[in-house]
Known about the structure:
Elements: H1 5-11, E1 31-32, E2 44-45, H2 51-58, E3 67-71, E4 75-82, E5 93-98, E6 106-113, H3 117-125, H4 135-140, E7 150-152, E8 170-172, H5 180-206, E9 213-216, H6 223-233, E10 237-240, H7 245-257, H8 264-270, E11 273-277, H9 283-300
Parallel strand pairs: 3-9, 9-10
Antiparallel strand pairs: 1-2, 3-4, 4-6, 5-6, 7-8, 10-11
Helix pairs in contact: 2-7, 3-5, 5-6
Amino acid sequence: MDWDDEILEILGIPRQMLPEIRPSSDPELYGTTDPNGPFGAAVPVCGDLGDQQAALVGQAGFDVGEVKNTYGTGCFVLLNTGTQRTPSTSGLLTSVAYQIGREAPVFCLEGSIAITGALVQWLRDNLGIISTSAEVEALARTVDDSGGIYFVPAFSGLFAPHWDGKARGLIIGLTRYITKGHLARAVLEATAYQTREVLEAMNKDAGVPLARLKVDGGMVANELLMQFQADISGLPVIRPKISETTSLGAAYAAGLAVGFWGSLDELRQYWQEDKRWVPQWDPARREQAYRGWLRAVERSKGWLEE
């Protein structure tokens, strides 16, 4: 809840030029818009949340142990750890989730995955296997499984929980049997495997058993991916009726500050489930598939030489 003196010194930034740190939802307001500007009035500016923190608030993830994943170009998993900071020993980030008014700040564990939706785009733009991103689900459904292949999309290294900048992408397990349908399925599975890695790291750090995974973002329209996410994580995967939760969370923060909503309990009532996917795999199948993924990841590491 303060600027870090060591980082300021490294970057050569004088502390006095930085703004005051204020709550995410601030009844005292940060200021107002120009009455002569595009809004035509002096609108109060009083909500301020980072992208992923806003999605957690939009998902009404206000309880300790609530976890959400935003599926976009990359994936970003956040776990609410309450008012106590939980230092990570498993490759995650400890950060502030939100602060409402003068209440104690709420912290989270955060896991960032670099390439998920971007891998579908790569399949479309670089290989030309599909014409639109939406086609990947239909192509993946032409096969029953990935044919034993794994696609580790370490295009710019591996992010959480590995943090290996020297890793590079690989497709492993190829045989003459493999078709573009298997490749499309492996692309989707890579997103779910990477998410499970982050969820396991969160379990180790927080010691909080995860009961469900709330999901949002553009890729949640892909129902094949959502079912595989449930199967490989062993958790129910729940999509809300409003999947663009980042914008919703920012609105919640501002609305709380000006009294449009009275409490977090009121916001909880607005969250509504759209669809739920439950695990269909038995534990043995789940762990066998995941072991193969971990073996593939190990082979992608350290590819770049000094």
